[in-house]
Design brief:
300 residues; Rossmann fold; three-stranded parallel β-sheet
C-alpha cells in the first residue's frame, strides 16, 4: 500500500534512495529503490537520489556510475539531480561544531583496540544495536586542558555524543511515526540511549552516517524514509539528532530485507550477486522484478 497522497497542507511527499558507491548494487538495493520509486509515483510525490559517498577511501566514481546505470535499467528515475554527500562536508562539520559548543559532544582518542581492552574481562558488557561494544567512557572525563593538549599534539580523535547529558536536555519523549511496508502506522517512542556515547564524527571520515543522514533528509525535505529494517534501530538516534539540531522528522517505513538461500541478508561484503552480474547473465529488468516479487510476495 502506498503512502497517502496528502500528509497535510497539500504538501507533496518526498522519497529518497541513498546508496553508497562502494560496490555494485544487488537485489536488496533494487527492492529498496523500487519501493521508494513506486510509492513516490503512486501518491504523486517526488523521488530523489542521494549518493552517500562520505567515506572517501571506499567510495569510487566507477561504482557511482554503475549504480546510476543499474537504476535506469530497473526503471527507477529521480526528479532532481543527485545529491552527493562529499559536496556538503562543511554542513556536517558545522552541525558537529554546534553539538560540541553546547557541551553535548566530546573528543575521543580511543581506537577500537583500546575499547576492546577496556571492556575485556567485564562479563556481558553491553553492545549497541550494530553489535559494537558500548563505549566505556574512557575519554568522557578528560579535562579541557587534557583534551586540548592531546589535540594540539596531533593525536587522532573522533567525536562522541555525550548521551546521558544530551538526554537530560530533552524535555518531552521523542517520538516518530513508523509504517513499515504500508501498515496503518504507529507512534513509536525513540530509545537513543541503546547506542550509548555513539560516534558522530569519525577520524577516518568527516562525519558519521547518522549526522549526514538526518541533515540530508532535512535539506532535501524528505517526508518518507523508506529503508531496510536493519536500520530501524538507528531511527531512535536519528530522532534525537533531529531534536538537537532542530530538523524535521519524516515518517519512517522500514521494509523487510531480501535474503539469500541461507536466510541471511544480502550484502556487498558477502559477495551477493550484483545487478550488473545478473545483467551479464542475460537477465532483463523484467526478470529481476519478477524474482523480487516472488521472493517478497509483493507486486513490483
Amino acid at each position: 500500500m502506498a503512502p497517502e497522497q496528502d500528509p497535510g497542507g497539500g504538501a507533496r511527499r518526498v522519497f529518497r534512495f541513498a546508496p553508497s558507491p562502494n560496490g555494485y548494487l544487488h537485489l536488496g538495493h533494487a527492492y529498496s529503490a523500487l519501493l521508494n520509486f513506486r510509492w513516490a509515483r503512486a501518491c504523486g510525490g517526488r523521488m530523489l537520489l542521494r549518493i552517500e559517498d562520505i567515506d572517501r577511501e571506499r567510495s569510487r566514481r566507477e561504482f557511482e556510475q554503475a549504480l546510476l546505470e543499474d537504476l535506469h535499467w530497473l526503471g527507477v528515475h529521480w526528479d532532481a539531480p543527485p545529491r552527493r554527500q562529499s559536496e556538503h562536508l562543511a554542513d556536517y562539520s558545522a552541525a558537529l561544531d554546534t553539538l560540541a559548543r553546547r557541551g553535548l559532544a566530546y573528543p575521543c582518542f580511543c581506537s577500537r583496540a583500546d575499547i576492546a581492552r577496556a571492556c575485556a574481562g567485564k562479563k556481558d558488557w553491553p553492545r549497541d544495536p550494530d553489535g559494537s561494544l558500548l563505549y566505556p567512557g574512557t575519554c568522557r572525563g578528560l579535562s579541557e586542558a587534557a583534551r586540548a593538549a592531546r589535540m594540539a599534539s596531533g593525536a587522532p580523535f573522533s567525536l562522541r555524543l555525550a548521551m546521558t547529558d544530551t538526554l537530560a536536555t530533552i524535555e518531552a519523549p521523542l517520538t516518530y511515526r513508523e509504517f513499515h511496508e504500508g501498515d496503518s502506522g504507529a507512534v513509536v517512542t525513540a530509545t537513543p540511549e541503546v547506542w550509548g556515547d555513539v560516534l558522530i564524527g569519525r577520524r577516518d571520515v568527516p562525519a558519521s552516517y547518522h549526522i549526514a543522514c538526518v541533515l540530508d533528509d532535512h535539506v532535501q525535505a524528505v517526508t518518507d524514509v523508506v529503508r531496510g529494517v536493519d536500520l530501524e534501530a538507528a531511527t531512535g538516534l536519528h530522532r534525537l539528532l533531529q531534536a538537537l539540531l532542530d530538523l524535521r522528522t519524516p515518517d519512517y517505513r522500514h521494509h523487510r530485507l531480501v535474503l539469500d538461500g541461507a536466510g541471511k541478508k544480502l550484502s556487498k561484503s558477502s559477495a551477493a550477486p550484483s545487478l550488473r552480474a545478473l545483467r551479464r547473465q542475460g537477465l532483463g529488468a523484467a526478470d529481476v522484478l519478477a524474482d523480487l516479487s516472488r521472493r517478497m510476495n509483493v507486486p513490483l
